Amino acid sequence: MAKREWPPAVERFLAPGGGAAGLMGIVPGETRPGFARLSLVVRTDMTNPFGICHGGIIFALADTAIGFASNARGGVQALTQHCFINYLVPAQVGDTLVAEARETARAGKNAVFDAAVTNQHGETIATFRGTTFDRAGPQRFQGDKDG
Question: Do the strands 110-118 and 96-107 form a parallel or antiparallel pair, or are they unpaired?
Answer without folding.
Answer: antiparallel
